[in-house]
Amino acid sequence: MKHILHLDSSPRGDRSLSRALTAEFNRTWQQTYPEDKIIYRDLGHNPVPFIDEPWIAAAFSPAEQLTPELKTAIEISNELIDEFLAAKVCVFGIPMYNYTIPANFKAYIDQIVRVGRTFAVTSNGYEGLVKDKKKILVITTRGGSYANHPLDFQEPYLQAIFELIGITDLTFIHAENLAMGQEARQQSLADARKVIQQFISAFAAC
Ligand SMILES: Cc1cc2nc3c(=O)[nH]c(=O)nc-3n(C[C@H](O)[C@H](O)[C@H](O)COP(=O)(O)O)c2cc1C
Description:
The chain is α/β, with parallel strands linked by helices.
């Protein structure tokens, strides 16, 4: 049995296209690999807290020096990191907001990118501490189109931040042109669905 981590970050509900696509991933994965366990977190409707001063003080203190207050400050971070580390495959639904990721997904990243837990600072620079092989599928939804465009601050950022903690196996499915009329939207969603199916089938061959 593998753990799959499914995160949604659209604040929208039934009208959200990223949720529709990750739900399709979820359904198809469960049909294909029924023994796997899918852990679900809804960052769009139940955001994780922003990091704050006690969080930073705790994250940069040795464990044995943590006061009860500082321990509490990083409890949620510990929970999110444990959950993230346990997953073999992650699927993230991420709308493009103002050329980048929504604030709630950034808040999640700030909670899981933590010195001593997911990366280390060494004399040679940063070292990723996530050593287990992990695949991340990022499904983005976008009103416009950004293939190789300098205004795409989603894909390069996500590549960089997950590489920092040691993960390089990221696949991106960008459902684009969703604001460019019914025909463009339907085509884009159909294309994204096809690639989701391919991703899931290809996993069997890994
Ligand atoms: C606050 C806000 C900012 C947005 N910024 C962008 C943008 O920079 N580029 C773009 O292509 N689409 C942008 N969009 C459009 C969304 O990416 C698009 O509607 C997408 O489908 C939202 O995901 P969802 O359907 O899962 O909610 C924006 C939408 C909102 C609400």
